[in-house]
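Sample pair:
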Amino acid sequence: MPGGPEEAYERVRPIFESVAAKVNGDPCVTWLGPGSAGHFVKMVHNGIEYAVMQLIAETYDLMKRGLGFNDDELHDIYCSWNNGELNGYLMEITSHIFSKADEKTGKRIVDEILDIAKQKGTGMWTSQSAMELQVPIPTIDLAVAMRDLSVFAKEREQAGAIYQRSQRRLTVDPDTFLSQLYSALFGAMIIIYAQGMALLAAASDKYKYDLDLGAVARIWRGGCIIRATLLEDIRAAFQVRRDLPNLLLDPSLSRKVMEHQEYLRQVVCRAAESGLPVPGLMVSLSYLDAYCSEWLPANLIQAQRDYFGAHTYERIDAKGTFHTEWEEE
């Protein structure tokens, strides 16, 4: 994901193209733009990576604690999922993880790993940049927050003892629920990529990167952690409309989201009823519902801001800014 002076890239382009991963013979590398364009794209790539990993972890929890599946069953399920629309590097390695034995104990090594997730900072930087650009990426934000929360292991243990709210098994038909979970994860994956690409679009405009988001999707198809079959659809969306502000507005991808959103809703409801935390799936659904809402209750927030701080507001029936004296003398 190189950026900087284009003439400098051209000098090393043959080397980069020779060593880059190939998809159908096409090298997964290109000049992205001037200055820090390449670094910014890589940062957002990692933010998307955080969110995808969080969602996969939530499906794992639903199947492990919710359905009582063992590691062999989880291995088979993730292998199967990797053969469909969810095909990608993270899905592929997830299936491998559940079959790996620990040399020390003979048990599956995943069950011997402490449930504390570390981070190097790129997810946090993605969230910070999105807030500066005022682009909502709540699933990525949530993924960063959940890694932070995982570190509070002792407090989580104490809270569990206080609230004594045990997670209940899901009272569902396993085969039906697995089908719903597959669809829910795929729908949420589209939403994650939509958030990340929307951030890249805003950054490109703000920082004059002139990013070709279709090219970004093209080079992400191979050789990177978030490579996925879905990126072919994303690439096609930007080929049709280069200035697409959000992937959820693309006709083809929006149809896919509509096909899967009800399953996402059902999975979130089942998880909430059972006390199993699926905040990534939940916030992805809420983002979709908010993004598709012609009206949001932000008018009340503006009224509150004007009430306590005279921050003014805009009206539906007139242009300009207005202030109300909310308390009579």
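Residues 22 and 278 are 35 Å apart (CA to CA).
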